[in-house]
Design brief:
The protein is of the alpha+beta class. It folds into 4 domains: 2-30; 85-345, Immunoglobulin-like; 353-605, Alpha-Beta Barrel (TIM Barrel), CATH 3.20.20.80; 716-989, Immunoglobulin-like. It is built from 18 helices and 58 strands. β48 and β49 (857-865) form a beta hairpin. The longest helix is centred in the N-terminal third of the chain and has 29 residues, at 2-30. The termini are far apart.
Amino acid sequence: MAEEENQQSNGRRRLGIIIAITTIILAAIIVPITVVAVNQRQILQSTPSSSVSPDPSGSVNCGASVCPTNINHRIDCYPEPGVTQNLCTQRGCCWQPSSQIQGAPSCFFPVGNHGYSAVKQVESTTSGYSATLSRCNTAQYLRQGLLRLAINVAIPSKNRLRIKIFDPAVQRFEVPLKLPSMSGSRVDNADFNVAFNSTPFAISVTRKSTGAAIFDTSLGGFVFEDQFLQISSKLPSRYVYGLGEHEHRSFKHENFNWKRWPMFSRDQPPGEDHNLYGVHPFYLVMEGDNTANSYGVLFLNSNAMEATLSPNPAITFTTTGGILDFYIFTGDNPEAVVENYLSFIGKPFIPPYWALGFQLSRYGYNSLSRVQQIMSDMKKYDIPMDILYGDIDYMRHRLDFTIDPINYNGLSEYVDELHSQGLHYITILDPAISDNQTQGTYPAYDDGIAKGIFINDSRTPNAPLIGKVWPRGNATFPDYFNPRAEKWWTDLIVNFHNELAFDGIWIDMNEPANFVLGSVNGCPNNTWNHAPYKPVSIRGNVLYDKTICMDALQYISKHYDMHSLFGHSQLLPTIKATRAANPGKRSFVITRSTYPGDGQYGGHWLGDNYSGWPPLHFSIIGSLEFNIFGIPYIGADICGYFDDTQFELCLRWMQLGAFYTFSRNHNGYGYIRQDPAGFDTTFALISRDVLTIRYRLLPYLYTLFYQSRNTGATVMRPLMFEFPLDKTCRTADRQFLWGPAFLISPVLLQGVIDWTFYLPSGRWYDYYTVLTPTMRNVTVPVTLYSVPLHIRGGFILPVQKPANTTVYSRMNPFGLIAALNTTNEAKGSLFWDDGDSLNTFENGDYVLIEFTATSNSLESTVKTNAYAIESNLDYITVLGLPNAPSAVSVNGVSTVNFSFNPTHKVNQVPNFYSFKIKFLSQLFRIRLGFRDNDQNIRQLLLSNVNKKFILEIRKYSNDTSSIIIIPSFQVLNVTSLDRDLNQPFRINWN
């Protein structure tokens, strides 16, 4: 019996061994792939690969290295200058110089044995998945990598995902943004699948419906050291947008030859490749040629970093601290992605209505009398304007919260006078506070010292770091993360408002800027000020170039971690303070340095730009990018900040800048005047006319800001957001839309007499003539008066009779422009409140009206009716009617106050004489063309032009892009309506 039992036992052992061997073989075949089927809440688990074995140091053996043979797959292993084969191989990387592609790294990561390995199974959690990672036993990169990491994947909704890689043993710095929790229950219906590779560790996120790669780290190059972190991800296409702040040369990224984009806040005038004032490590990708599917990725990190675009295509993030924290947002089109992103980081604020008016500023008015003279010139030409700025020259010795008693004596009384004229005043405040004023005479410093507000020097932990900026003498830097700073800052602003009744605040130099390296005493030689790696694309030889020491002590952490958050930390206390100074008022703040989420508190201008034709174009790109970043209240300094501008350039910039959402003419110290009244009568009148168009359209623009606050929608909108399948729109960055319906195609080159722009599919109406070109690429003659504008068929724009300030324009009657599409339909809306009070949207103190139009009617529906609109609806204009109406009724009552005019369709024909008509009342030109000797068409055209005109004939012998105009449809004008917009109405015609 015992012998039989022993035989059975041995048999069980042999069977067990056979099963074990079989399991190992199967594991070697099946693993290292771990697939997560998100929709089924299942993980197909496996044991680690048999090639992974522990090392006495605590790292693991991840197997043999393999150098990628495809040059496009290379991830740079030695980004610093001076790489050699010896230095490369010391890092365990591959060496193979190549001139095949410009920028290709000679030293690049192998795949297979670098990075980390998941030594335990991926586990399912309530919110998603988690795993523990061990470092592969390979050569160290810069310094010893962390031996153990943890990864958490959270899937709180069908279109959001978070991937967080961190040190489970030691709390590292994490960006202190207040974001929605991602710890909720994992959803079953996500747009994506997630897969893990265990050795070397990689994560793959793919769109469930198409398999497109959204986030795939299998290219290698994964490093996690204390001051060097890096991870790469494949991209599904080269339709990549975003990453900032930079002065990009194109809206769509074009350079994928290992192009590095630095991100680290810096006092740096815009220039190619430079890291500028703000940091926005967010990019948006369209997933292929024939799909509108898109996604966005936020890398939530505030340390010095760079993003590299390589030809795989792929993106590599390299940062000098913190953790690897990625948020992914999916959508079925790029606009949906931005709305998803902004719903997470914070949807933009609604500016006060007056903040949508034109704004005038400069550094170096130098006296109140000079300001008054320029304002008198503006008034002489009746140029619309709402806001005047005070730059640092109004201060005494450039000290915050002071007024120059000599050159600006009487400023407070003058601001009161501006208010009486319906104008507003914005004052500048810099963060740097002078430290050498007589004790007891400068509360900003005295109170700041008493309350411990300032950033401290690491060498003297209880004493402020001393730098130098604009104030006379030296300067200290407030730590706005200090919880005591908000009240200190608010008290100063409220007290100053008692002296100077400003309406909003402009915060500048908040990167923070410093005119000396680090401090007046230099910076200690340590690992923070001289980190083992400084991203090579970041300007300056050291991280503290033009700013403060990296080891300076702040309330939360070292400045090393928080540098790029300085402007962000100042913004919220500033908007709270200016609202405290203006109780019940919305106010606004414009800031130079920004970070994700700042659009919910303020706006941004594109910095100290140069006066030149290329920056004119680049300002469109920057403005579109900041709409993606969630800061739609955006614009550049009209006519440029640096250098003397030129007449034609400045005029074209006024025509473009009239359609920035933040429309301000501002320039630097000592340069010539460039305000609209600063040249001659022609310049002033052209500026007045284009600004009058802006003021007429402000109800539409204001409604767009409501939609942005409500859903996260963009305001200045790229063409591709409305036409994502149109490949021409994917690279269009010389035109832009206001919302979905109003197209701006500004002239951006010097001395041109013709201008070509693109009209996507659908019906478009010339704003001035309501002509409807049928071609896509339209070429029109241009003069200095020309700025091509078009209304998109299918939409209704609310408008208002303009005035020279918004205070008075809001008293004028409204109108509606209904532009029918090819199916004779149109829709639109109007959001309206008092334009100035705080939280009207949040409290429901507004009216929201929806409009719909067809070929025989236009009606309104009042959706929210909690504010009494001051002015009535005076008229409607309906574009694109197929037939001339004979009768019109308003709420069933006939009216005789209507008229109609035939308009014309524009078709393309070659070889004809071209007539140019200049409508004197609107200061623009169009080209009317007809074939040689075709007198019938000539008479038809001229008989249907009802405005005064000047005719000029020019022969185009080989001009195949010229146009001929033939009758097409009717335009209906119904006037003297005097309708209360708070009450629904219906207008019919037949």
